[in-house]
Write a structure and sequence with these properties.
Phosphorylase Kinase, domain 1, 9 strands, 2 domains, five-stranded antiparallel sheet, Transferase(Phosphotransferase), domain 1, two-stranded antiparallel sheet, alpha+beta, 214 residues, 31% helix
């Protein structure tokens, strides 16, 4: 990854130490090909947020583009059916910083802990690794989790939820298309409810495969 990966994507140039001191990391929400998503609370005003933590020793062209696409959504006008990206920061992470951000107590399963171990295995002399943090609004469950729930098809509330979910998705996609953006990876795992408890509206997230049409 280049030393200035995010320079053209409205990155707030905050030092990593200053950024970390403002947040209390509480749990690991999930893991994927690019890293971990953490739940954090702002120490000053108590608001909760999600932080995607990405460490890649050598970014290949395709991987770099995917991360840049997601970071670039910080500049997209806010819409209630799109997961808001609030802050991005690029820095070099040391072993002590990684352990501060990712203490073992955050991980509830072996798969998540394995991602951290892979990060540590990539550390090279002098024990540093370039990385990116993407701060986003904290959402609730995914649409996939909602679909796994047992629903009474005769329940009018279920019908209302189905209608609202479809309408929210259409509204979100219309907003993206007006901004000449194609998501290209719309699936239940990338659609989130606003708050825990399957609270509407739903929001579209994860723009790593998106395309901006010119």
């Amino acid at each position: 990854m280049g030393s200035n990966l995010l320079q053209n994507h409205a990155t707030t140039r905050t030092s990593i130490t200053e950024y970390l001191s403002s947040l209390q990391f509480e749990s690991c929400l999930g893991s994927g090909a690019f890293g971990l998503v953490l739940k954090a609370t702002n120490r000053e005003h108590g608001s909760q947020t999600a932080v995607k933590f990405i460490l890649r020793p050598e970014m290949e062209g395709t991987e770099q583009k995917q991360i840049l696409r997601e970071c670039s959504f910080k500049t997209l006008d806010h819409h209630e059916n799109i997961v808001k990206v609030m802050h991005t920061i690029e820095d070099v992470f040391t072993l002590s910083l990684i352990n501060d951000i990712l203490p073992d107590k955050l991980f509830t399963n072996a798969a998540q802990k394995m991602v951290k171990d892979l990060f540590l295995a990539r550390l090279t002399r002098p024990m540093e690794l370039p990385g990116v943090l993407i701060q986003m609004e904290l959402c609730g469950e995914t649409l996939r989790q909602w679909l796994y729930q047992k629903h009474d098809k005769s329940d009018s509330l279920v019908h209302h939820q189905q209608y609202a979910i479809v309408k929210n998705l259409i509204d979100g996609l219309v907003h993206l298309h007006k901004n000449k953006i194609l998501h290209r990876d719309l699936k239940p795992e990338n659609i989130m409810f606003s708050k825990t408890g399957f609270i509407l509206p739903v929001k579209i997230g994860d723009f790593g495969l998106s395309r901006h049409l010119h």
